């Protein structure tokens, strides 16, 4: 049995990669199944104006700075 990844054989690396892919697929399946059953996400809507952060500008005549 190999106890170090540096001296591990090609077969050991393949087993580790296969296990990582399998665990990732199980995790994605669980997350996607959980997301489908939630009904509050599909009807969510955002209301209000779209705000974009920009640099502060000075409006001529007022002398005050404002963010637009």
Task: Briefly characterize the structure.
With 68 residues, the chain is mainly alpha-helical. The chain has one helix spanning 10-37, and strands spanning 56-58, 65-67. It has one helix and two strands.
Describe the structure in your own words.
The longest helix has 28 residues, at 10-37. By secondary structure, the protein is mostly helical. It has one helix and two strands, in the order H-E-E. A hairpin with a 6-residue loop joins strand 1 (56-58) and strand 2 (65-67). It has a domain at 8-36. A two-stranded antiparallel ribbon has the order 1-2.
Can you summarize the main beta sheet? 2 strands, antiparallel
Would you report the number of β strands?
Answer: 2
The total count of helices amounts to 1
Shape: elongated
Strand order in the sheet with the most strands: 1-2
Contiguous low-pLDDT stretches (5 residues minimum) are: none
Helix and strand content put the structural class at mainly alpha
Order of helices and strands: HEE
**What is the arithmetic mean of pLDDT?**
75
Please bin the fraction of helical residues.
40-55%
Task: Give the termini distance in whole angstroms.
Answer: 65 Å
Which range does the strand content fall in?
5-15%
Give the C-alpha Rg: 27 Å
